[in-house]
Amino acid sequence: MQPLNGVRVLDFSTLLPGPMCTLLLAEAGAEVIKIERASGDDMRNYSPKVGADSVNFSLLNRGKKSIVADLKDPETIVKIKQLIAEADVLVEQFRPGVMDRLGLGYEAVAKMNPRLVYCSITGFGQTGPSAQIAAHDINYQARAGMVALSADRDGAPIVPPVLTADLAGGAYPAVMNILLGLRKRDQDGCGCHLDVAMAENLFTLMYWGLGHGWAANQWPSPGNELLTGGSPRYQVYQTLDDKFLAAAPLEEKFWINFLTLIGLTERQSVEDASIVKARVAKIIAQRTAADWMGIFEGNDVCVAEIVGLEQATQDPHFIERGVFNRTLRTSDGTVIKALPTPLSPIFLGENACVMSASLGQHTDEILNASGQKSVLAQNQGKQ
To answer: What CATH topology corresponds to 8-204+322-382?
Structure first.
């Protein structure tokens, strides 16, 4: 049995943070009911598509049920409230105040279901001067000081390639807090309201910069720090064939091994960092990436060739580990690889082909299961 079997989750979220959160819950066995407007989650219309929906939507929403609901319709709100009364978890990522205006805010629904774990995911949290500001991932990273660290000493910051705020600041903290909320409920019988703010959760990821700033007033600058390009021991080096190696021989034993294998045996002080980087770069540029990886093979030097995403999915190590073994079936019957998740395999169900629901596929089933007549049935009765 999976750890979240029997847990019912109502998912009011769209796009990435909430759907990734509820995907992880679904993977662990929870029943996730995705509540969508008539036009569906915006991500359904992204490209490329696999069948009726985008591949992005299918990857993030496999294993969930979909119902269509007009949250501005009073009769529909009555039905939704009954679902909430029977739920264990609710996930929403509207701007602060929207759920309250719909009559579905935490204070209102906690009266009908005091055991509910209610998770609100927003950019800046439920309170504070920035709570209502519209923003996206790069904005949250910019406000938290993260984007500034992506530049080299002389260049402008680059656009981050990973939606770090959505995932590491939103989805993952939401899952952690939901599980803690369920554990708390096991202990005291009471639910709770979780306020997950993506921007502020990014600070945890920059612990080293905060520590240096608070302890020694040495606030990090781009391109100058140990892990941002300031050290020859944590650096990207270009090879003869215009490929790149990611070298991270930080510890002394790894650094000595690295210098010995590339033929740079003279010792250099920390103050000579720029000189050492230039010397190492000149040596690495004299051989191909394959040559260097052959030289480094079997030695502890902490070096990896930088490869593209396609090549990474073909890495024999990841293949042997079964990282991409799971599959999903889209709404039109197409089978594609499923998005890997960080859940331990012991918490996953059988490696079956999990479905991605079509828009509104479970509307009648879910409403009827809650003792409600579907809108369709009601309309038929009036005819």
So the answer is: Rossmann fold (3.40.50)
